[in-house]
Design goal:
Distance between the termini: 41 Å
Largest sheet: 7 strands, mixed
Order of helices and strands: EEEEEEEEEEE
Shape: globular
Number of strands: 11
Structural class: mainly beta
Number of helices: 0
Helix content: under 10%
Radius of gyration: 14 Å
Length: 133
C-alpha cells in the first residue's frame, strides 16, 4: 500500500527558506503524480504544485511561481518542495498527495484536474510551516 510521509516543516522568519520532502513507500507503479497542497486555518486546501513521473511535467500555482519549486529524486522515491522568500501567507499545513497515472497520461500536471484536492486518493499527514518574525 502506498504511503506518503512529509517532513521539513518548521518555524521560519519572513524571507527565509525551507525544503519540504515527501517520501513515498509501497509504490507499485512507476507512473504517478505527486502534488503539494497547503491548508491555512479556516481555509480549503490550495494546490501549490504537481510533478508527474510520466513525462516530468510540472505545475506551480501562480501565487508561488518563482519562489516555490517542486522536484523529484527517483532513486529515493521522494518529491521535494523548495520554498524561498517565505511570506506569512505561505504558512499552513503542507500535504503531499499522490495519484497513480498510466503511461500515456502526458502533461497530466498541466491540466486543471491536477490542482483539485478531490482528485487525489492518497495523502500524507502533513507538515506545519509557521512564518513569523
Amino acid at each position: 500500500q502506498l504511503q506518503l510521509a512529509e517532513s521539513g516543516g518548521d518555524v521560519v522568519q519572513p524571507g527565509g527558506s525551507l525544503r519540504l520532502s515527501c517520501a513515498a513507500s509501497g509504490l507499485t507503479s512507476t507512473y504517478y503524480a505527486i502534488a503539494w497542497f497547503r491548508q491555512a486555518p479556516g481555509k480549503e486546501r490550495e494546490g501549490i504544485s504537481c510533478i508527474s513521473s510520466v513525462d516530468g511535467s510540472k505545475w506551480h500555482n501562480d501565487r508561488v511561481r518563482g519562489r516555490l519549486t517542486t522536484s523529484r529524486d527517483n532513486t529515493k522515491d521522494t518529491v521535494y518542495l523548495q520554498m524561498n522568500d517565505l511570506q506569512k501567507e505561505d504558512a499552513g499545513i503542507y500535504y503531499c498527495a499522490a495519484e497513480l497515472l498510466k503511461p500515456g497520461m502526458v502533461a497530466w500536471c498541466s491540466g486543471l484536474i491536477a490542482r483539485l484536492s478531490g482528485e487525489y486518493e492518497m495523502w500524507g499527514r502533513g507538515t506545519q510551516i509557521t512564518v513569523s518574525s
